[in-house]
Amino acid sequence: MSDSYDFKSIERKWQDYWSERNLFHVERREDKPKFYYLDMYPYPSGELHMGHVRNYIIGDAFARFKTMHGFNVLHPMGWDSLGLPTENAAIKFDVHPIEWTARCVRNMKQQFDRLGISYDWSREVDTSDPEYYGWTQWLFLQLFKNGLAYRGPGMVNWCSQCATVLANEQVVNGCCERCDTVVERTTREQWFFRITEYAEKLLEDLELLDRWPERVVKMQEHWIGKSRGFSFSVDIEGYDEQMEVFTTRIDTVYGVTFMVLAPEHPLVRTLTEGTEREEEVRDYTRAAMAQSFIDRTSDDTEKTGVFTGAYATHPMTGERVPIWVANYVMMDYGTGAIMAVPAHDQRDFDFARKYDIPVVPVITPEGEELDGEMMTEAYVEDGMQINSGEFSGQPNREALEQIADTLEECGIGHRDVSYRLRDWCISRQRYWGAPIPVIYCDNCGTVPVPEEDLPVQLPEDVEFRVTGSSPLSQNEEFMNVQCPRCGGQGRREADTMDTFVYSAWYYLRYPSPHEDEAPFNREDVDYWLPVDQYVGGIEHATGHLMYSRFITKVLHDLGWVGFREPFASLFTQGMVYKDGAKMSKSRGNVVTPDEINDRYGADTGRLFSLFVGPPDQDTEWNDEGVVGSHRFLWRVWRLATENLEHYESDYAAALPEEGTQSQRAMRRKTHQTAMKVTDDLEGMRFNTAVAAIMELSNDLGDFAGAMAADDTADRAVFSEGLTYLIALLSPITPHICDELWARMGREPSLFECEWPPAQDELAREEAVTIVVQVNGKVRDNVEVAADTEMDAVVPIALASERLAKYIEGKDVVKTITVPGKLINFVVK
RNA sequence: GCCGGAGUGGCGGAACUGGCAGACGCACCAGACUCAAAAUCUGGCGGGGCUAAUUACCCCGUGCGGGUUCGAAUCCCGCCUCCGGCACCA
Asked: Which residue from A231, A299, A375, A680 has the least number of CB within 10 angstroms?
């Protein structure tokens, strides 16, 4: 062992040591409180960059800290390997996704290990493993059996080139991210999970998430988008059918001057088929549907529409109300049809003005007359009801309730709630996913695959590069299957499941990753779950996190788990930018951990990742900053190795009872740092924890420089300081700390050591500086013993020479004192 | 438009429930060591004024404008800018 900080061999040495001792493996145990720390698993892209690394270092430092602090910490990792990103990469590099995944996983796992991350690899989960996705299929079957999975028509993003449905995030500027084809919004038969059934529960239980970031809760709340209103049906002249509309403003019903259907609404066809308007309307709806996606991104798409020729009957007045089709009504919200009240809704107003439809005000602001012809914008505030039959003359909010009562009594409609949340489309017409475990039989219809036949294996020999239809449908061997019910000829479902399905339950698998009788072992799940701390990117606020909550609730209601929320506490880490852009492979601005490891070592990369700034905020990568972190580790290295002969591992007995002033100050700093670091790590404030450790290191360096080598008390104080320094630093830079720990004659690994206890009485200041202000401006300060009463400090402060010129010849009208902090004289 | 978040030195960022703004680090400057450089160590480092210069001292300063308070980066009101999310939600 040389005296130089040879990080390469040190890091390799300790990584080997940890892995040989199987240090990071955990089991259930009752003698310690459990702690489940979970990082969102990555999709195996093949290479980590410092953006990911920051995230995983946060987790590792925290998990190590918790372990040392006495918790039984579950800290697992796995791979989100099934899905489009992997399939696309495989196509690009012309490899089979199985091979590609294996390669990427191998490399990334090595990268994780080189960073010294304390994962329990015996619990590794890989979603592309049939063991895993078989249980995902099992999950599908449970939802299916309970009416929560269904096949039906739904609005989807369809790329005709790739012949697949695209998730919203795969649509960029209205085009397919892969081939740039304009994406169509169309209706196709797809498999859905009925997440809307859980809209209310998902909303209500947000209250339980008091340790989630406020903004994530807000985003989910908004995403669910609950609004209370009224639904009712109106008759259509000359047709048997009725048209159902939803409104939040039933008080404005007397102001209805037209009705609007979304272009996709099935009634559009019914009402125009065979009429003279058929062609015009058909042309319009086609154009509207084709443009709708691209135009959605532009700020104010012009409202356009066309009259269907049909009339509805006003539910209160019996008047004829024309029915229009317009692009500003969306099929996937409410009923896809609205009652339009131009006087009191800005969108309806704009539309009415454009097409010369009458504007009839039914609510007026206090002391004002509204004239439908003269209005320049809709009046959307509250006011008095007018032109509203028996309801005229009262405040609109009261009228709203009465009109609702009346309509309910007549059986025309009912109070209703509408959600923005849509059902979750889980079908993908792609290869690299778990086959949806369903068989179609001419006799029996849609038949679920029996649980004992799971997993439905994804065949390897499939041409997945083709575009045109679901790749699996071309594999006859896979497709042809006996109907499990009648034994006749059946065909398998050729679609696979969406990536988000696998990730919606993976956290339940880690506690018992090898369980083969069930998706998870109930006892293990009961012990470890809910996740105590979940960490990941904010981009998953409304996707993954919503789906996971949903699946947990379903499993709860079916009796499979005992809790309703999977993640007790959530932390969203910031992204790493470089050259002003998010660090990503496609931008070519990545810094990889390998580069950092080679030049400075993993510990330096770890330290810098945590020191750059608050972990929940975005940060800019800075090459110079890394050097600073590296320098700090060198300083620690020298501080320890150059003073080894002064170090006593058995220092406790030699600690001075009273001690000199500098000894007391050193011990104070040591214990203050222990307090601060403990507190900061608990709150994941790594940047300030590191700063505090640096201060301790600086002070300890000064102390070491000044101490008398033969003074046992000095040596004991130094030894205590160094012991604390290395232990406090060890969750952050574990390799160098274990190495120094061993050289200090202590038993590694620090991972198994106790967290250094902070002693309050030693950390307490003996003297405090009292700031002396005159009229709020600092003019002096005085140093007094910490326990001095403020009353005793006032005369000392008043006697100050520096103060003299500010108070001379003036009256002290008021004296404000803050114990241990300051005195402020208010003078006139 | 609505909902979040953020604006502090040249830079990243500190500052507990209102109490010395700028911890810690980077960059920079000066000095020591060196033939020299690197590394390392020591000191300095918000702006302005006063001073021959130093010490001391004074004024200003946390996006902008008001306010509350003995005292505001922190609380309140009104704006501006940037970032993120949602967006014709009936």
From this structure: A299
Render pLDDT for A672-715 as a digit per residue (tens, 0 to 9).
999 999 999 999 999 999 999 999 999 999 999 888 878 999 99
For chain A residues 199-218, those near strand B by a CB cutoff of 7 A are 214-215, 218
Please tell me the distance from the alpha carbon of residue A697 to that of residue A673, in angstroms, as a whole number: 10
> Position of tokens 């994941």?
A684
- Which of the nucleotides lies closest to A249 (Cα–C1')? B90
- How far, in Å, is the CA of A689 from the C1' of nucleotide B15? 14
Domain boundary among A417, A438, A471: A417
Is any atom of strand B within 7 angstroms of residue A227's beta carbon? yes
Identify the domain boundary among A712, A745, A763. A763
Distance CA A773, CA A775 (A): 6
Q: Which nucleotide shows the minimum CA-to-C1' distance to residue A339?
A: B90
Q: At what angle do helices A661-682 and A686-706 cross, to 10 degrees?
A: 160
Assigned domain for A780 exists = yes
Q: Which two tokens stand for residue A16?
A: 């080997």
A473 preceded by a cis bond (ω within 30 of 0): no
H helices of A442-489, in order, are 476-479
A824 in contact with nucleic chain B (CB within 7 A):
yes
Determine the Cα–Cα distance for residues A377 and A124; give it in Å rounded to an integer. Answer: 60
DSSP string, A248-283: S-GGGGGG--EEEE-TT-HHHHHHHTTSTTHHHHHH
Q: Are strands A619-620 and A576-578 parallel, antiparallel or unpaired?
A: parallel
The contacts of residue A449 (CB under 8 Å, 6+ apart) are: A137, A141, A437, A438, A439, A456, A484
What's the CA angle centered on A168, arms A90 and A615, to 5 degrees?
80
Q: Quote the CA–CA distance of A153 and A623 in Å, as a whole number.
A: 52
Here the tokens at position A549 are: 């909550």
Q: Is the C-beta atom of A537 closer than 7 angstroms to strand B?
A: no
Same domain for A255 and A403, yes or no, is yes
Q: Where are the alpha helices (DSSP H) in A310-430?
A: 346-355, 396-409
> How far is Cα A591 from Cα A584, in angstroms, rounded to an integer?
9
pLDDT tens across A229-281, in order?
A: 999 999 999 999 999 999 999 999 999 999 999 998 999 999 999 999 999 99
Q: Please report, to the nearest 10 degrees, the dihedral formed by the alpha carbons of residues A148, A150, A154, A160 taken in order.
A: 130
Structural domain boundaries, residue A823: 767-827
The secondary structure of A34-65 as a DSSP string is EEEEEEPPPP--S---HHHHHHHHHHHHHHHH
ipTM of the complex: 0.93
**DSSP conformational letter for A567:** B
A234 and A274 assigned to the same domain: yes
Q: Which nucleotide is nearest to A332 (CA to C1')?
A: B89
- Determine phi and psi for A311, rounding to 5 degrees: -130, 140
What secondary structure letter does DSSP report for A494? -
Q: Which two tokens stand for residue A110?
A: 């090595």
Please give the structure tokens belonging to residue A584.
């990503």
Note whether A648 and A797 are same-domain residues.
no
CATH number, domain of A771, equals 3.10.20.590
User: Chain A, 249-268: which CBs lie within 7 Å of strand B?
Assistant: 249, 262
Task: Look at residue A443 and tell me if it is in a domain.
Answer: no
The torsion angles phi and psi of A589, rounded to 5 degrees, stand at -115, 35
- Cβ neighbours, 10 Å, residue A448: 18
Helix (H, G, I), strand (E, B) or coil at A397: helix
Contact A105, A47 (CB under 8 A): no
Same domain, A690 and A815: no
Q: How far is the CA of A211 from the C1' of B17 (A)?
A: 20
Q: Are A469 and A429 in contact (CB under 8 A)?
A: yes
Helices vs. strands in chain A: H and E counts, helices first: 25, 34
Give me the number of domains chain A comprises: 3
Q: pLDDT tens for residues A305-362? A: 999 999 999 999 999 999 999 989 988 888 999 999 999 999 999 999 999 999 999 9
